[in-house]
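Continuing the batch. This is chain 6 of the set; chains 1 through 5 are on the previous pages. Same settings as before, nothing changed between runs. Recording input and output for traceability.
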Amino acid sequence: MNPEIPTGSPSVYRRGWPRVQSLRFAMMMSARVGITPTLKRAAFISKHARNVALRSAVVRRGIQTESLPPSASEAILNHQRLKRPSSPHFTIYQPQLTWISSIANRATGGALSALLYGFSLAYLFAPGTFDSTHIIELISGLPEYVKYAGKLILAAPFAFHSLNGLRHLAWDMGKFLSLKSAYRAGYAVLGATAVSTIALVLM
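Output for chain 6:
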């Protein structure tokens, strides 16, 4: 009896034997034309893709979703935003003359502008008499320490903003742009501001 020929009932023979022969014929033909390695690689790739798909399915099954109202969703979003990194605050940097003088220049300019516009609006819309004569009479009746304190509050920002403005104009002309010269100009502005403030207060 030929061991390659299956034995059993005719129905088993009809079902199994042609399939074995067709598979054997396909393997022989693939070996002749040299595509057996390609088939092996394709089988490996398909098996790997199937494993990846199974792992993805398992991961997806472990994730549970829940329908939330808009208010709860917004609360979760706000909580996540609190943990996001934000831009660093300028207070983490070492204080330096360059950026301190820049901030002071803007602050003094804004304060002097607000004072000027406030005085102008008060002159236009004040219910009583609001002119230079009445202002001088009001100031002359104040104590001396109040006068000097008021002059200091007005003179210091005015002197600094004016002198530091000249420094900015020098930068616009291409002067004092190096780090060393910028610091020298900054210290010169501070010294001139101190002298000018004292002179204005004592006037």
